[in-house]
Design goal:
Layout lengths: L2 E11 L1 H4 L6 H7 L12 E5 L7 E5 L7 H9 L1 E9 L15 E3 L2 E9 L2 H10 L3 H4 L7 H11 L6 H20 L4 E8 L4 E7 L8 E4 L6 E4 L11 E2 L4 E6 L2 E6 L9 H10 L1
Antiparallel strand pairs: 1-4, 1-10, 2-3, 2-4, 5-6, 6-7, 7-8, 8-12, 9-10, 9-11, 12-13
Helix pairs in contact: 4-6, 4-7, 6-7
């Protein structure tokens, strides 16, 4: 499974999460300790917010530990909100378009986990998308398609509700088409102002997610696994939880998928899937 780290707070250099800590994201790319696979070598990416509303982004298919450009950028770029990801592929070839984070307008998204039977349910998932989001799809991963579904269901206006409906729709389609539904995920997403994260699984094996204060008061990072051995600093986020980082600090609430209101046209997509 993939590893990721996200930050919101006072502007810091990206290297403070990506390269400098004892168990930095680069370290996790070849020596993850709380994942099924220790090596995450199928590409990497970072998305960061600065003076413009749209995020900057840098992605490549090289292993994160071998890319000198990543280390140089992380040392030079300061940002108050950024997402960083190292990939272990489950769906989709090793190519730049499949590397996280994914972006659309001001939104960025990254994901760790998997959607079982994705090859069987991909077509009705794509059928839910309006032209704007269907044509925005450039890769082949379940992660990017989940992001676009959330945008379709209103991520820009109601972020957590839209993500609940996107996950609920995937479960609904999977049950109809395969008789089972298994989704495991942690995901982080942001509009450049608020940072959201969710930890969820249809079984008891939700991917790990931790939170810790970092730097100035009110600044936090969210990670797949702790960046150092200071165990008292890191709080494990319970499964079926959503985390919200904003100007008011860190808040958490229950995350439970819900059935989207599809409308008559998209009800036919669901019926066809059945």
């Amino acid at each position: 499974m993939c590893r990721w780290a996200a930050y919101r707070g006072e502007a810091i250099f990206l290297e403070e999460l990506v390269t400098s800590p004892a168990h930095s994201l680069i370290e996790q790319s070849h020596c993850a300790t709380r994942a099924k696979t220790a090596t995450n070598a199928d590409g990497f990416g970072i998305a960061w917010y600065g003076d413009r509303p749209e995020p900057g982004r840098f992605r490549d298919v090289l292993p994160a530990w071998s890319d000198c450009n990543l280390k140089s950028l992380a040392r030079q770029i300061r940002s108050p909100l950024f997402l960083a990801h190292v990939r272990a592929a489950t769906h989709g070839a090793t190519r730049r378009d499949n590397c996280h984070p994914f972006v659309h307008d001001t939104w960025s998204f990254m994901h760790n986990g998997q959607i079982d039977n994705f090859d069987r349910i991909r077509r009705p998932m794509e059928g839910m998308l309006d032209d704007e989001y269907f044509h925005a799809r450039v890769g082949t991963t379940d992660s990017e398609l989940l992001f676009l579904l959330a945008l379709q269901f209103g991520l820009k206006e109601r972020p957590l509700a839209a993500m609940r409906e996107a996950v609920g729709f995937v479960e609904q389609i999977s049950l109809r088409m395969t008789g089972t539904a298994r989704i495991r995920l942690t995901a982080a997403f942001s509009d450049g102002n608020t940072l959201y994260a969710i930890r969820y699984s249809t079984d008891e094996y939700a991917p790990t997610l931790y939170a810790a204060p970092m730097g100035p008061k009110g600044s936090y990072c969210l990670v797949s696994e702790p960046l150092n051995d200071e165990v008292d600093t890191w709080v494990e986020i319970p499964a079926s939880s959503a985390v919200i980082l904003s100007d008011t600090g860190l808040d958490a609430e229950e995350f439970k998928p819900s059935a989207p209101n599809l409308g008559l046209e998209r009800d036919r997509v669901v019926a066809m899937a059945g």
